[in-house]
Amino acid sequence: MGVPVAALVTFEDGSKQRFDDVAVTSELSERALVELLYDYTPDLVPCSPLAQDGLWRYRDLLPLEPGPVTYPLTVGGTPLVASPGLRQASSCRHLWVKDETRGPSGSNKDRATALVLEHALRRGHQTVTCASTGNVAVSLAVGAAAAGKQAVIFVPADVDDSKLSVMLFCGATVVKVRAGYTAAFRLSRQAARTFGWCDRNTGVNPLTVEAKKTVAFEIWEQLGRQVPDVVVAPVGDGPTLCGLAKGFRELVACGVAERQPRLIGVQAEGCQPVKRAWEAGAPRVEPVEPRTLADGIAVGDPVSGRLVLRDVRESGGGFVAVSDAELLEAVRTLATKGGLLAEPAGAAAYAGLLRALEDRLVSPDEQIVVLLTGTLLKTPRFLRPASVPVEVEADLSAIERALAGRLAD
């Protein structure tokens, strides 16, 4: 089973230390980032045909003791979509979309929620907490309800009303924090330590990255056990991209892949602290005030910023930033050309791909995977139709007249 043998810890000052006793990492400082390590061999990677067991397929590379998984929702195993319309629209002949909107709450956050709640079930925690700009909160509200746990969720006061409604509808206790996401994050962590709650917070709980790395395993298997040339992912707090990097690193460490893909991180122009640090060659990320409609990546002080810089650098990749207008156009294109419904943050990778093509960070002839990370259905305010319905009498000739020139032969 998946038993970590060591942990690599990156401290706030950038220094690193390996701990062979994984248990001691729970006593480290709040800003220490923990990466779990395994005794890598090819036997840890499943060789059977892809099944319907989701992320638990990779339990030998997850920190799980022996025993049945009791978390009740199906998570992982999302499709890798080859859309002819999106390939034509982007001029990328080998474009794939990893559609993470197929999870229980419609976002890639469901993987981390599942692994954290599985641990909570095994250890008897009754309350689980997180801070979130939206999708993590919805995911935890849904997952906690399914697992019979209490969720206490801290959100910025300007949280999206539709997502807030889902959290409350699922029975979560929601705390609005006027000072914004960073303050909500700190308050959630303080409450977890003080009251003994399970802490599901992104990045600081290593289980979140462990769960998200399974996306890389799935991509590799779905491409016939091959690594793509490029993977494009949004960057908010950072663990989505860090999870991808760790997953591909572990495939190499296990001896089943020869290389990692280049990683392209995408941020909003109104919230790009990691991209600016990258361009400045800075060792750390300086906080900014988020100014973007894409709440899922509106993180001004990303907890995993240093690790994102490291992972993109080691992959030979880069960063791009996209405007809110580009994000909304990507939402429209994904829907009309691919039949894929993504909110602005969820569409960031596709918007970023188009910018990366312009910047020559990516070639259209390469094999490219973009992550679709959050559904549009939780944010109906972005449903902006480009046309209006046709209204006619119940007469076939009226239909013929109304549709003249609208449809291709």
Highlighted features:
13 helices, alpha/beta, four-stranded parallel β-sheet, 409 residues
| Alpha-carbon distance between the two ends | 57 Å
Which spans of ≥5 residues are poorly predicted at pLDDT below 50? none
Helical amount: 25-40%
Radius of gyration: 21 Å
Structural account:
This protein is of the alpha/beta class and 409 residues long. Helix content is 35%, strand content 16%. The protein has helices at residues 84-90, 109-123, 135-147, 161-169, 181-195, 206-212, 214-222, 239-253, 273-280, 305-315, 324-338, 348-358, 396-402; strands spanning 6-10, 16-19, 33-37, 80-81, 94-99, 127-131, 150-156, 173-177, 198-199, 230-234, 262-268, 318-322, 367-372. The longest helix has 15 residues, at 109-123. The mean pLDDT is 93.
Draw up the topology in text.
Layout: E1 6-10, E2 16-19, E3 33-37, E4 80-81, H1 84-90, E5 94-99, H2 109-123, E6 127-131, H3 135-147, E7 150-156, H4 161-169, E8 173-177, H5 181-195, E9 198-199, H6 206-212, H7 214-222, E10 230-234, H8 239-253, E11 262-268, H9 273-280, H10 305-315, E12 318-322, H11 324-338, H12 348-358, E13 367-372, H13 396-402
Parallel strand pairs: 5-13, 6-7, 6-9, 7-8, 10-11, 10-13, 11-12
Antiparallel strand pairs: 1-2, 1-3, 4-5
